[in-house]
Structure formats: structure tokens, C-alpha cells
Design goal:
Elements (H helix, E strand, L loop, with lengths): L12 E7 L5 E9 L6 H12 L8 H9 L6 E4 L9 E7 L7 H17 L1 H11 L7 E8 L8 H17 L8 E13 L1 H5 L15 E3 L4 H6 L3 E5 L17 E13 H14 L3
Parallel strand pairs: 5-6
Antiparallel strand pairs: 1-2, 2-3, 3-4, 4-5, 6-7, 6-9, 8-9
């Protein structure tokens, strides 16, 4: 069903004006919906995109089913009505209360193993928060969208998620989180090997080993600024060739995984910032 919204700034339809190559304008109505069974295959594709080279390490079908088992929590964004494929999704999974479910065990083990490769301190911190003895409640944020979707659809989704979690808490459901673990992805530019082979003159730039971190999700920058800990890690299954990801540019793009740990208060404070920074 369509999302429940009373605030005009978060209406179920958002007009996003996009400029076409001929300089005309195209009006697109983005509609927000609850997750529903018809979204299963689209969710699988979005989750594969989110997990990158490592999507084979996770039972994507089971993870999609888990997200769909929470139909009143989270959002999808569609263009052609309720029966069309979602272009974006947002959900949260309680890693503590669902720790015994196979796909949650699998996903938690994977994320912890990747964090450990670059930030052992964060891995220990997250592991302690997730232990059966811990009183913490950690929500795993799963947010993905098609690559050409405008970031402006994101703030209303997060704002609705906060409202829905509060409604769930009021109904004594287990969504009273103390922390959030944001699962995302980023990339760095890597010099082409072909340029080296052709012995082309080196461009002046960064020193060896220095790389600019770029975000597939621009909103990650705001979450990172409020983070308790951050891990940017290589995919476990990645056999990277920079020239495979090089299109009309001097450098290849190397995707990588990203995990951001936030307290509840920090997460809650970022959402209004997103509404201000990425307003329509």
C-alpha cells in the first residue's frame, strides 16, 4: 500500500525534475510504498548491488524474505504504481533479537569479518554490542537504490523510518535501538594499468597510495560525520582490474564495502540534516 504521510514535504508523490540531453525537462512522480511480496526479485537485485562482489556470500533470497516479513517498517520508491518494480529500498533489521536466524548469522559474520580487516577496534566494539549478554539493540540499516536515482528521495525515506520505528516501539515491538550499523558501499579511483604499459607521462597528482574516497550514496557523508566508528573494506571476492571499470576516464573505479556505526541519538540527529541538505 502507499505510505501514510500527512506532511506535504513528505507526500507520497515527489516531483523530481530531470534535465534531458535536448535541454527539455522531464517530470517524474516518485511514489513511496511499504515493502510487499511483489518486490522480492527487485530486492534481490538491489541487495546484490549493495553487497557487490560478495553477494554470493549471503543468502540473498532469505535476506529479501526477511525484509518483506516487516511490511510496515521501511519503504520502497516506485514510478509506475504499486505493481511496478521499486527503484529504491530502505529497511532496518534487529541484529540482536534475530541473531539466531540463519541469514542474520550469515550476514553478521560476514560484516564482522570484513570490518576486522581494516578496523579491529570497531569489529570488537560491534561484536560486544551484538553479544547475548549485551543490553544493546543494534539495527542494521539496509539502503540501496538504482545508480541514477536522485538522492532527494532518501531523506523522506529515513524520516518515515524513524516514525515507523516509534510506532513499532509504541506497540511493544523490538525496534528500540541503541545503535545502528549502516551497510553501504563506496569507491576509490585506481590508476589504469594500460597507461603504465603504454608508458604515458604520469599526471601530477596525489602521492602514491593516496586515494580519494567517493560515495555511491551522497548521504553517507552526513552519517559518517556523526559516526562512532567507520570501516571501509575491500570485498572478499574482489579480483580487481582497474581497466574493467574504466569508462572514458583516466582511472578505474574500485568499489568497496562500507560500515558505519552510530548511536541512536546520532542517527536521529542526521535525518533532519538530510532533509535540509537534500531538499527537493
Amino acid at each position: 500500500m502507499a505510505k501514510r504521510q500527512n506532511n506535504e514535504s513528505e507526500d507520497t508523490q515527489m516531483n523530481e525534475i530531470m534535465k534531458a540531453p535536448d535541454m527539455d525537462f522531464i517530470n517524474i512522480d516518485f511514489e513511496f510504498f511499504d515493502p510487499q511480496p511483489i518486490d522480492f526479485h527487485a530486492f534481490k537485485n538491489l541487495l546484490k548491488q549493495l553487497l557487490g562482489y560478495d553477494h554470493t556470500n549471503i543468502n540473498i533470497s532469505a535476506l529479501s524474505d526477511l525484509i518483506l516479513s516487516q511490511p510496515l517498517l521501511g519503504s520502497t520508491v516506485k514510478i509506475d504504481g504499486n505493481n511496478s518494480d521499486p527503484y529504491a529500498m530502505l529497511s532496518v533489521i534487529n541484529l540482536n533479537s534475530r541473531r539466531e536466524e540463519p541469514v542474520v548469522k550469515e550476514l553478521t559474520s560476514y560484516v564482522l569479518s570484513r570490518i576486522a580487516t581494516v578496523n579491529p577496534t570497531m569489529e570488537k566494539q560491534v561484536r560486544e554490542l551484538l553479544s547475548p549478554e549485551s543490553k544493546a539493540q543494534v539495527g542494521l540499516i539496509i539502503n540501496e537504490r538504482l545508480i541514477n536515482m536522485p538522492v532527494q528521495v532518501v531523506p523522506p525515506m529515513y524520516n518515515m523510518l524513524l516514525e515507523e520505528m516509534q510506532w513499532a516501539i509504541d506497540a511493544n515491538e523490538p525496534y528500540n535501538f541503541t545503535h545502528y550499523l549502516l551497510l553501504s558501499r563506496s569507491y576509490v579511483e585506481v590508476a589504469s594499468k594500460l597507461d603504465d604499459e603504454d608508458e604515458q607521462p604520469k599526471k601530477k597528482g596525489k602521492k602514491a597510495g593516496e586515494q580519494d574516497l567517493c560515495y555511491f550514496h551522497p548521504e553517507d557523508e552526513q552519517f559518517r560525520q556523526a559516526a562512532l566508528a567507520i570501516a571501509d573494506y575491500p570485498f572478499a571476492n574482489q579480483d580487481f582490474n582497474p581497466d574493467m571499470n574504466r569508462v572514458f576516464q583516466d582511472a578505474g573505479i574500485k568499489p568497496q564495502g562500507e560500515s558505519v556505526l552510530l548511536t541512536h541519538d546520532a542517527f536521529k540527529s542526521v535525518v533532519p540534516q538530510l532533509l535540509n541538505v537534500y531538499s527537493v
